[in-house]
Predict the structure.
Amino acid sequence: MAAFIVMIKSLYCGQVKATTSGAELMTVFQIANRFEVRPCLDICSKMMQELTMTLEISAQILDACKLSQEQQSDEVKKLLSLASSFLCSHFQWTHSSAWDSAKIREWQTLSPHVLRILLGSDGLIIPYEEKAFQMLEIWISANCKKCDDGDNEKDRAVCEFGQLIRWPLMEWFCLQQYLKKFESKGADQHPLRTLIIEALLYRASRFVNAAQKAPGRMRRRYEVLAAYQSVYVEWTLRQRMDGLRPKLYAGLMVFVHFELCLRLFEVKVYS
C-alpha cells in the first residue's frame, strides 16, 4: 500500500523520495510496470541505475518489465541493459569458469521470462553454442516435469526455448546428434527439426564456399566434408522428413549461401 501511495505522489511532484529504500523502490517499480505508469517508471528506472546490481535485483528488474521495445523509454532501456549485462556476466560459462553446484541452483531459479531474455542475448558468455542448449536442459530438468497422461512439460519447454538457440553456430556433428535425439522420441514433426536441418545445410554450404577458395589438397578435404553432410541430410530427409520441402525452402532464404546450398543439394536431396 505504501509503495502504491509513493507511485501516486510521483505523478503530482515528479519525483520519488530519495530516502526510499532499495526494496521499496523495487516494489514501486514493479507496481508502475503493472499499471504502466510511465512517469513513475522512468523516475524509478533512473534511481535504480545507481543501485549495486545483484542476482536477485537484476532478475526482479527483468521480471517486472514486460513492456515491448517500442513502449520502453530510454531510462527503462538503460536499466534493463544493466540488469541483463549483470546476469550474462554472472552466468558466464567458459573453459576457466565452469559452473559449480551453487551456480546451477541459481540458474534453475530463474523465471521463464528471464531465461528467455538471457538465451536470446548477444551478451551471454559461452565458449560455444552447444553450451547454451546444455544450460537450457539444466533449467528444464528443475522446472518442468513429464506427466503420465502424455502432457510433457519438458518437451514443450524444449520446443519453446529451443527457438532461441543459434543452431547454425553449432558444429555439424553436434547438430546430427541433436537431430537423432529429437527423432528418437517418435515425434514426426518436432518443431526444432526444421531448424536443425537448415543449420546442417548452412554448415555444408560453408564447406562448399571454403572449397572454392582453398588450394588443391585442402579443397578436396572440404569437398569430402560437404559430400558427407549432403549424404546425411539426404538420408534424413528421405527417411524422416517427408513434406518438409516448403518449410525448408522458406527457412533457407535467411542464409547468405543460399545459392551455393541449392547447387550442392538440389539433385541429391530433392530429385
